[in-house]
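Extended Data, panel c. Modelled sequence:
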Amino acid sequence: MARAATTSDVFNAIAEPQRRDILALLQAGERPVTELAQELGMTQPGASKHLRVLREVGLVRDRKVGKQRLYGLDARGLRPVHDWVGGFERFWNESFDRLDAYVQELKRTQQEE
């Protein structure tokens, strides 16, 4: 099955590590592209391309302030990722419950000895 275009699918967009790094930086607040590029050690055009993809999938918003454009996180776009990962929560909870039961049993065994 062919993968969806990066610009139309949040999962493909965040598959790129530098885009995830941009999202992490934007958690702290809005930033201009030049600052993001400098922080991540990339060129301004490279950072702009990543920001365009993130904006097109709804993870980043931008606004103009004077001559500068500020980019900010729009975490609502992460909802599909949150929902998908949440499907695995039951698995992890059950695994941790089994681990806890095993540790408790080890403690009881040690106390009895």
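The chain is about 60% helix and 10% strand. This feature is highlighted in the accompanying rendering.
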